[in-house]
Amino acid sequence: MKFTPAKPPLTGETLDSLTARLREAGEPVFRAKQILDWLYKKRVRSWDEMTNLSKPLRTWLADTFELMPAALVLNKQSDDVTDKLLLELGDQSLIETVIIRAPQDGVGIDHSRKTICISTQVGCAMGCVFCASGLAGLKRDLNAGEIVAQLLQVCYREDERTPRARMELASFDNIVVMGMGEPLANYDQLLRALTILNADWGLGFGARRITISTSGLVPKILKLADEELGFRLAISLHGATDEVREKIMPVNKAFPLAKLLPAVKAFSEKHGRMVTLEFILITDVNDSLEQARKLRDIALDLHAHVNLIPYNTVEGLPWKRPSITRQERFADILRAARISVTLRREKGHDIAAACGQLRLKTEKARELAAV
Ligand code: SAH
Ligand code: SF4
Q1: Is 96 marked active-site?
Q2: Ligand 1 and 178: CB distance under 6 A
């Protein structure tokens, strides 16, 4: 289903596109930079606060654009580590954005830092059998403005917590595109959003601090490798052989390991940065020592970092995480080969645990309320 908002979001405009809109409307083009300053640097939340713009211009803006296309409906601070924002879009779709105030060493991030996990689609079409986000299939892609809006909502939240934050370009350190959806299946809107986040007239956020996680869309990985902005890449591997991967990730049929791994290699050679291999540990599915040895060989060949994630139970799904002893045994095989490996153990620290589940619960509650 495609969603066309009544008014396009201002958060989806680039400096160029906004300049063009102003020119068409007969407004001075230098206003574009001022408008974006109000949006991203001063972070005002209404048109009337844009006090250096004339009243007619403000009226034109209000008639033409939606200032913020994602409304905060729930903010749930579950523990010291994660802070989840449930956002509602113009068509009442719900998405989740998560602030993680904790280590995310899996993507090479400093321990005291703040990482923001963003969504790129409502639902997901990839059908990985273990995942909450894909359970109901894909509802729709997010547009660039809705992706950018998630970060602005995080800024609003941080501005409220620390009044000083508003002085900073962005009050967080890393962005991981690991929320709901397959980012590379919404490539153009994702790239437009990341360009806006990166631009000095936007949030000025460094591409090297943005990690995109994919289930393995090979042509898009190769395309991403050619982009000017050097984003980091994480691959959801979850199976070290086609046999195992295929059982849990349907994408492996179109892009088996013989296609995926060379694409990952090409990406990391081009960027000179380590790629992260994400590997969820699921009991009796992919947690054998044989899988560990195969994963070791792949990681050595790609010179990749491995992020082992004990599976987080999803209501209604039968999968379970292995015991800590079994997790450690698996990890030891990688450690023995001197691979850079992280094994996340604390529940709240898990991005996947954080993403997707709040939306699922709220949608279920809404359905019940509607009956
Ligand atoms: N679609 C992209 C990004 C979003 S999913 C991708 O698949 O990479 C982010 C990560 O969370 C992926 O590695 C995904 O496999 C993992 N994940 C999904 N459900 C999970 C669960 N229940 N427990 C642990 N990790 C999960
Ligand atoms: Fe989609 Fe990623 Fe979940 Fe697979 S793991 S269904 S690609 S969100």
Answers
A1: yes
A2: yes
